[in-house]
Design goal:
With about 260 residues, the protein is mainly alpha-helical. It has helices spanning about 5-15, 15-30, 40-60, 65-90, 90-95, 95-100, 105-125, 125-135, 140-170, 175-185, 205-210, 210-225, 230-255, 260. The radius of gyration is 19 Å and the shape is globular. The two termini are about 20 Å apart. Belongs to the ABC-2 integral membrane protein family.
Length: about 260
């Protein structure tokens, strides 16, 4: 039977008990034996934002306060997207027992992955708030666009997660391929460097702007730091989101029913 991606996502959101409880259980069991507990969830964003941020600010001659916020926000958006997509490639195989037992609403497992990545993102919000507090470029008006921008990021994660999870169920090598591609894309995402250092009319700027993570990071971060958002970013994300969802709906409709056989 052909399945509807949109309908399955709506059903998953209407019945969150399974994926929310499973996410909570994952997190509890991961940290309960650790003496420092949830501190380990705070440690990476603190280390990366202030440790790496200050180091690269001095390395590039940038103002530390501004660059720390630039790097920290960029890193957290990048991490949110990449962790979601990387884990989505193996989520069906990891839940094979549930799927073979008849729980075939596959979007439950995608949202379990996304919810876990979102949890770590939310935990990093206080760190980002501290970074923005010391940034001379912080703009309060950016908070108005923050939630819509994050919703757009999640909307794109949802369709990309659906695509890579279905393909990953059929081809185990997809996990390695996606991991390598995401690692490579880090170099072309303005995290350790700024978008202004790669103008759109240059070859390096054009290559960087072909990377969707470039635009997903900029749509969230630029308003917070008082930086302009390029018209290309709006156009790119509009086309990327619509075309991506149409592609994901088609792939899910054609191949989701084969997932129990593939895993």
């Amino acid at each position: 039977m052909n399945r509807s991606l949109v309908q399955d996502y709506l059903d998953t959101l209407r019945h969150p008990a399974f994926w929310m409880y499973a996410t909570w259980l994952d997190l509890v069991t991961k940290y309960r034996r650790s003496r420092l507990g949830m501190f380990w969830a705070f440690f990476p964003p603190i280390l990366y934002t202030f440790g790496v941020g200050i180091f690269f600010a001095h390395l590039q001659g940038e103002e530390a306060g501004k660059f720390v916020a630039h790097l920290g926000i960029g890193y957290m958006i990048f991490r949110f997207v990449t962790v979601s997509l990387s884990e989505a490639t193996t989520t069906y195989a990891g839940h094979a027992n549930f799927i073979l037992d008849g729980r075939t609403r596959l979007t439950d497992y995608i949202l379990r992955v996304v919810a876990k990545a979102l949890f770590y993102f939310v935990l990093a919000v206080p760190v980002m708030a501290c970074a923005l507090a010391i940034s001379p470029g912080f703009q309060w008006i950016g908070l108005v666009t923050l939630l819509p921008a994050l919703a757009l990021v999640i909307l794109n994660i949802a369709w990309m997660g659906a695509v890579v999870s279905v393909i990953g169920a059929r081809l185990q090598d997809v996990y390695e391929l996606i991991g390598s591609a995401l690692m490579f894309s880090f170099l072309f995402t303005p995290i350790l460097w700024t978008a202004a250092s790669a103008p759109p009319d240059t070859l390096r700027g054009a290559i960087a702007r072909a990377n969707p993570l470039f635009h997903l990071v900029e749509i969230v971060r630029a308003p917070l730091l008082g930086e302009p958002i390029e018209l290309l970013t709006y156009t790119y994300l509009a086309v990327f989101t619509v075309a991506g969802w149409l592609t994901a709906i088609l792939i899910y409709r054609l191949y989701a029913r084969f997932v129990p056989m593939w895993i």
